[in-house]
């Protein structure tokens, strides 16, 4: 291990654990958003989707290191992250496959994932901390690949969910690179203890975490003469809802999406908007 990676050993381990946990959680999220297609998925299909999330997270992490890791250490850091993910994945797969797990195949798989990540996403030039057309195009391209893999191409709900899962990891990775503890990425389990409560039965207030988490995402896009408005939920937030709560929230957000989508369409196709848009992009 290089000198720089010895210095960042704890962060590399945290990032590897976070990336694998979020990738697994995201696969579950995709299946929930395409239940009919999920029934037809084989283990190899799920593995392909899992790797797609790893690819986008390698790219996002690479962009974030430019903001938090000295330039001289960045290449060695990313090589160390590849090794850390490989090591962590070996540990995760060992209980399931035992001695049958092909260690070299795992090394090659992660190496190929990193190479494909660069090939697919390095061409998008943007600053990861800012919203931009290039950033949206990259996440859109990624989400469409996921939708294709799950067997639901052009499925707006799957695409929105994939975009949300991938973009929600940005603040968590930033926290690790800044030396902070990352938010818990593992899904809730029945054995976990509920949040502490105050004497009046209300949940106890927690101190600020230092992270802004986007729980609900709503986006409208214009393609030709059509406007598409879609919404998505943070995967952890969705898991914490009861079926009745999720049904109620879905109904409300569908109404919000319809109202905002119609308003956005009215503005987007107005003469005033067209005049401004042409002037601003002349």
What report would you give on this structure?
The chain is mainly α and 282 residues long. 67% of the residues lie in helices and 6% in strands. The protein has helices at residues 3-7, 9-33, 35-38, 43-68, 71-97, 103-121, 133-150, 156-177, 235-240, 243-268, 271-280, and strands spanning 216-223, 226-233. Strands 1-2 form a two-stranded antiparallel ribbon. α2 (9-33) packs across α4 (43-68), α5 (71-97) packs across α6 and α7 packs across α8. The longest helix has 27 residues, at 71-97. The relative contact order is 0.11.
Strand content: 5-15%
Mean model confidence by pLDDT = 79
Q: What is the overall number of helices?
A: 11
Structural class: mainly alpha
Instruction: Give unreliable regions as ranges.
Output: 184-211, 276-282
- Number of strand segments: 2
Q: Order of strands side by side in the largest beta sheet? A: 1-2
Please state the overall shape, judged from the principal axes of the Cα atoms. Answer: globular
Give the terminus-to-terminus CA distance.
52 Å
Helix content: 55-70%
Largest sheet: 2 strands, antiparallel
Rg measurement, Å: 21 Å
**Order of helix and strand elements from N to C terminus:** HHHHHHHHEEHHH
């Amino acid at each position: 291990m290089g000198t720089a990676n010895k210095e960042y050993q704890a962060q590399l381990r945290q990032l590897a654990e976070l990336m694998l946990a979020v990738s697994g959680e995201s696969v579950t999220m995709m299946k929930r958003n395409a239940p009919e297609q999920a029934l037809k998925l084989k283990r190899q299909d799920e593995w392909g989707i899992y790797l797609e999330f790893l690819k986008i997270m390698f790219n996002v992490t690479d962009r974030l290191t430019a903001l938090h890791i000295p330039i001289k250490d960045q290449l060695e850091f990313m090589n160390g992250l590849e090794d850390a993910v490989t090591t962590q994945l070996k540990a995760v797969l060992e209980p399931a496959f035992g001695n049958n797990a092909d260690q070299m195949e795992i090394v090659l798989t992660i190496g190929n994932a990193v190479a494909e990540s660069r090939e697919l996403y390095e061409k998008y030039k943007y600053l990861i901390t800012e919203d931009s057309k290039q950033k949206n195009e990259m996440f859109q391209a990624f989400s469409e690949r996921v939708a294709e893999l799950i067997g639901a191409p052009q499925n707006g709900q799957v695409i929105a969910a994939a975009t949300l899962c991938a973009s929600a990891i940005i603040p968590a990775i930033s926290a690790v690179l800044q030396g902070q503890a990352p938010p818990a990425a593992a899904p809730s389990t029945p054995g976990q203890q509920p949040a502490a409560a105050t004497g009046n039965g209300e949940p106890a207030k927690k101190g600020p975490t230092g992270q802004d988490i986007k729980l609900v995402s709503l986006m409208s896009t214009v393609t030709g003469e059509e406007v598409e408005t879609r919404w998505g939920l943070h995967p952890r937030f969705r898991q914490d809802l009861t079926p009745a709560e999720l049904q109620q929230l879905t109904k409300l957000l569908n109404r919000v999406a319809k109202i905002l989508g119609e308003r956005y369409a009215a503005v987007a196709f107005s003469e005033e908007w067209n005049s401004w848009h042409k002037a601003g992009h002349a």
